[in-house]
Amino acid sequence: FSSVELTRHYLDRIARLDSRYNSYITVTEDIALAQAKAADERLATGDAPALCGVPIAHKDIFCTNGIRTSCGSKMLDNFIPPYDATVVENYRNAGAVMLGKVNMDEFAMGSSNESSFYGPVKNPWNTNCVPGGSSGGSAAAVAAHLAPAATATDTGGSIRQPASLCGLTGLKPTYGRVSRWGMIAFASSLDQGGPITRTAEDAAIMLNTMASFDDKDSTCVDQPLEDYTATLNDSLQGLRIGVPKEYFGEGLDPQTAERVQAAIQEFEKLGAEVKEISLPHTDLSVPAYYVIAPAECSANLSRFDGVRYGYRCEDPKDLNDLYKRSRGEGFGEEVKRRILVGSYALSAGYYDAYYRKAQQVRRLIKQDFVDAFNDVDVVMGPTATSPAFEFGAKSSDPVAMYLEDIYTIATNLAGLPGMSIPCGLVDGKPVGLQLIGNFFAEGKLLNAAHQFQ
Ligand code: GLN
């Protein structure tokens, strides 16, 4: 079948079914069909990249030239970027077809997709439950077969946790592997783009196109590109797996723990050696993150002032009124909470007590992993504390919501690649196994995941 037929198939499904899930904010039907037609012509030449003609969805955090990019916020409801993010450009150049822009927590702040200006996303496995966040739209779209794959971003778990809750594969690459240019910033030292797919093989194909060196992002690493599909079938004989004892403590649902332990044992059958390790500063990762991420967000979001772009209040009396009301009306509650926390942590007199301290703790957390990777190749544990929870279960308690990312946040603080793959069900809902690798060891993670799947 042709790319036009495949694209029509997905567009039809979106039109028919997405009212149940609310995974898309914008469907770019005309662009998709035009791109599919061009891809069919390129495929006919016999010389086209692997993704040519394949439809995908982009998280609405990636700028798309001429297409509204909302970041899940009223603040950017009217924002039409004049350029493409590097990630979007990479997929366009590879001939991939853009189906549309998918839903997310406002400015990627959240773990349940309940904070989007466009309404919550429903988990296709159980529509009373959240899909996870912040990339809940990416995960729900792939889980409901409304896209074969989607782009996403992960600042503290936003690729891995929704992948876990929706029974999918999600990969957060090493910080610097994927360009952040044109990806709306939340916490710049932690943000990283990556794919959400059904399988590790699909994730490898997606990452092959997504990863690039980009001189427009000064934190992008000039490291040779790899073909992540080339090592998928390597043997796992002798692979050293470390299981941190801190990832199986209080707060982890016992049935989830059981599924994750069983999955790790499967790796032993594939020839891996499993041993217990310790990441002693694990319990400090949530507090350190919730100082550093809000601090960076308070600086990044200062650009939304009602002047240059985005939402502007009606009839401002003067400049201060313009700032105050544009930001007061344009941002949602969680975003405001983060800006307040971050501004406080950075203010004179508190900076040393909070921000500097959090950065020192971050260094200790990274060192835990550096030490661990002297002895093991891959670290494994749960991705989330439980399967998908119901709407409203955590939305009125920010700290309960923040603890949702207790197993994923340390990876971002350290800059390491992390992945979540499905490893079974609890009460009919998916559970994710998390794999954490050394810097630039995405190929190893994908290899291990592919052998398991
Ligand atoms: N849930 C975390 C937060 O709310 C992580 C979000 C993310 O990775 N973008 O900050």
From TrEMBL:
PROSITE patterns: AMIDASES. Residues 5-446 form the Amidase domain. Coiled coil: none annotated. The keyword Nucleotide-binding applies. InterPro entries: Amidase (IPR000120), Amidase_CS (IPR020556), Amidase_dom (IPR023631), AS_sf (IPR036928), GatA (IPR004412). The active site is at 59 (charge relay system), 134 (charge relay system), 158 (acyl-ester intermediate). Its EC number is 6.3.5.7. GO terms for cellular component: glutamyl-tRNA(Gln) amidotransferase complex. GO terms for biological process: translation. GO terms for molecular function: ATP binding; glutaminyl-tRNA synthase (glutamine-hydrolyzing) activity. It comes from the Bacteria. Keywords: ATP-binding, Ligase, Nucleotide-binding, Protein biosynthesis. It catalyses: L-glutamyl-tRNA(Gln) + L-glutamine + ATP + H2O = L-glutaminyl-tRNA(Gln) + L-glutamate + ADP + phosphate + H(+). Belongs to the amidase family. GatA subfamily. Allows the formation of correctly charged Gln-tRNA(Gln) through the transamidation of misacylated Glu-tRNA(Gln) in organisms which lack glutaminyl-tRNA synthetase. The reaction takes place in the presence of glutamine and ATP through an activated gamma-phospho-Glu-tRNA(Gln). Heterotrimer of A, B and C subunits. This is Glutamyl-tRNA(Gln) amidotransferase subunit A.
